[in-house]
């Protein structure tokens, strides 16, 4: 937003000063992990982002130590919105954890491929994987049937979660994937041979005990882009999220009063950095627009409509916005 302000103009509204003032209300949650980043504290022996960060922010909400604004805010171009506090996020991700370990039959250290666009269920499911100790493998919806088959076979994934648009691709290669046991679809409609996430989530209990994961225990796998050969697996342990505490504060200027919008696709590692670990370790609000494709007008209209304090996107995107007659947009918000 600061770069955009220099390009388009941004009045110093009371709303801006209110956000700056709230920065004074520092929490011990990011302070401790910043000390780990600096080397002043040892990496904890046990760490789980869901229980040690999300659930602790939930407790700060209950104790009145965090302002009453969303932890997660999703919108689309049809004016639909989803807003969750940390309390709601914790509750729904516990229900999702029971879906994975119950009807889906997945266990700790099993691997699950998650191929989904920017929809709220992605965030619930990755937190659910952390709570259960299931290793999650994000993938972009742009993956072809061949790409999906390769990733399932190389990783020996036992589960896959997709949105409606990827169901046919998975069904076309299912015979090749001998390790795959569970197929879960996030869709308004059910599909034959698939478990329907929304129905299972509604029926699931909200009580769940998070696994006690060691910091070095495997949590997450990303596949490389494959530009110089076949894509390769890159493993990340549970303490991975701690590493973004300092950079997200000093580089992205995040705090518990920030509304942070990162435009990355969930299949890319930038979403883990900037739409999951970095913002939530500081108690920031993760803002997401469904954004099936990049459109400068949609980005600019969203910035004028919602109280977004920080925008993170590619340099090409900033150039496209500047070239899109941007001077007619006015960024002035009220809480």
Automatic annotation (TrEMBL):
Gene Ontology cellular-component terms listed: mitochondrial matrix
Catalyzed reaction equations: a medium-chain fatty acid + ATP + CoA = a medium-chain fatty acyl-CoA + AMP + diphosphate
PROSITE patterns: AMP_BINDING
Cofactor: Mn(2+)
Listed GO biological process terms: acyl-CoA metabolic process; fatty acid biosynthetic process
Originating organism: Notechis scutatus
Family from the record: Belongs to the ATP-dependent AMP-binding enzyme family.
GO MF, one annotated term: ATP binding
AMP-dependent synthetase/ligase domain residues: 65-327
Alphabetized InterPro entries for the sequence: AMP-binding_CS, AMP-dep_synth/lig_dom, ANL_N_sf, Mitochondrial_ACSM
Keywords, comma-separated and alphabetical: ATP-binding, Fatty acid metabolism, Ligase, Lipid metabolism, Magnesium, Metal-binding, Mitochondrion, Nucleotide-binding, Transit peptide
Descriptive protein name: medium-chain acyl-CoA ligase
Domain of life: Eukaryota
Gene this protein is translated from: LOC113430561
Record localization: Mitochondrion
Cross-referenced PANTHER family: ACYL-COENZYME A SYNTHETASE, ACYL-COENZYME A SYNTHETASE ACSM5, MITOCHONDRIAL
EC assignment: 6.2.1.2
């Amino acid at each position: 937003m600061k770069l955009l302000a220099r390009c388009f103009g941004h009045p110093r509204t009371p709303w801006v000063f209110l956000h700056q003032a709230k920065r004074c209300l520092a929490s011990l949650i990011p302070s401790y992990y910043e000390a780990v980043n600096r080397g002043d504290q040892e990496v904890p022996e046990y760490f789980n982002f869901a229980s040690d960060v999300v659930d602790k922010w939930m407790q700060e909400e209950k104790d009145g130590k965090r302002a009453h604004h969303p932890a997660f805010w999703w919108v689309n171009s049809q004016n639909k919105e989803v807003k969750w506090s940390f309390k709601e996020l914790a509750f729904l991700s516990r229900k999702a954890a029971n879906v994975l370990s119950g009807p889906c039959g997945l266990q700790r250290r099993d691997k699950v491929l998650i191929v989904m666009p920017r929809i709220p269920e992605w965030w619930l499911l990755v937190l659910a994987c952390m709570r259960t100790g299931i290793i999650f493998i994000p993938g972009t919806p742009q993956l072809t049937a061949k790409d999906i088959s390769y990733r399932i076979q190389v990783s020996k994934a036992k589960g896959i979660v997709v949105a409606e648009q990827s169901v046919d691709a998975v069904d076309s290669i299912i015979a090749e994937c001998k390790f795959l046991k569970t197929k879960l679809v996030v869709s308004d409609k059910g599909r034959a041979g698939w478990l329907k996430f929304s129905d299972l989530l509604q029926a699931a209990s909200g009580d769940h005990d998070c696994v006690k994961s060691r910091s070095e225990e495997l949590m997450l796998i990303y596949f490389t882009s494959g530009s110089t050969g076949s894509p390769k697996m890159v493993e990340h342990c549970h303490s991975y999220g701690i590493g973004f505490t300092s950079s997200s504060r000093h580089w992205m200027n995040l705090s518990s009063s920030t509304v942070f919008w990162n435009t990355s696709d969930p299949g890319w590692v930038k979403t883990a950095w900037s739409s999951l670990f970095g913002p939530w370790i500081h108690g920031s609000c993760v803002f997401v627009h469904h954004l099936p494709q990049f459109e400068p007008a949609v980005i600019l209209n969203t910035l004028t409509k919602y109280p977004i304090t920080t925008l993170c996107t590619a340099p090409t995107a900033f150039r496209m916005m500047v070239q899109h007659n941007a001077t007619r947009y006015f960024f002035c918000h009220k809480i």
